[in-house]
């Protein structure tokens, strides 16, 4: 274990999880985190923005372009609320984007004293728009909770997560055991009877069509193999674009898929 600040614990754990770029807009409640980023400027790149919404959309774009989790950091209250559109979009795109934000001082959380950027219940608000959210109560807990955030973002249906931390805890120190990535939660068991029924339907189909959405992200090789095995055209809708190469002979546009629709006897 090593003694470090809450901000340093977060940065060290981000690095352990492959984060080499962080998007952010500093403010008083998160100065401790940005100080830690400055101390590690040779290990993690910080890209600043002029509006919080931009930080979140840059992180989302990074994830969509690379297929890797991303992270951004902003002040609490109106700052983090300015990123809500991007978080909701990340939820719809199954994108693992981590929001890091601050809080009012520990002793004043939930007191309703009108602190700068205070919300009635910021954590509850975040939980309503992301897959998983938690508060880091103490620097000693920071690394494990960052690792948990990555575990939750990447397990099952992927999605965004959020962590908040009081501004005094970013600079407070504690003995920290920096967490390595946690194992992903086991995927739910596949119903063998449903698989057999689908296989039978595919065998009997004369004109099958594969239709891809964001749920197909990461399964490009399997989809290509299935399409080639059964000779089915593949149409990709919105967030399904790019799962299979558009230049593949079996790839068709959504418009072409619409034209094929009257002949299709099985849609997968």
Please provide a brief summary of the model:
This protein has helices at residues 6-16, 31-39, 52-66, 78-81, 84-92, 122-127, 139-154, 167-171, 192-204, 220-230, 254-260, and strands at 2-5, 21-24, 45-48, 70-74, 97-103, 132-136, 161-166, 173-176, 208-212, 234-236, 251-252, 266-267. The chain is α/β, with parallel strands linked by helices and 268 residues long.
Strands, helices and their partners?
Layout: E1 2-5, H1 6-16, E2 21-24, H2 31-39, E3 45-48, H3 52-66, E4 70-74, H4 78-81, H5 84-92, E5 97-103, H6 122-127, E6 132-136, H7 139-154, E7 161-166, H8 167-171, E8 173-176, H9 192-204, E9 208-212, H10 220-230, E10 234-236, E11 251-252, H11 254-260, E12 266-267
Parallel strand pairs: 2-3, 2-4, 4-5, 5-7, 6-7, 9-10, 9-12, 10-11
Antiparallel strand pairs: 1-8
Helix pairs in contact: 1-2, 1-7, 3-5
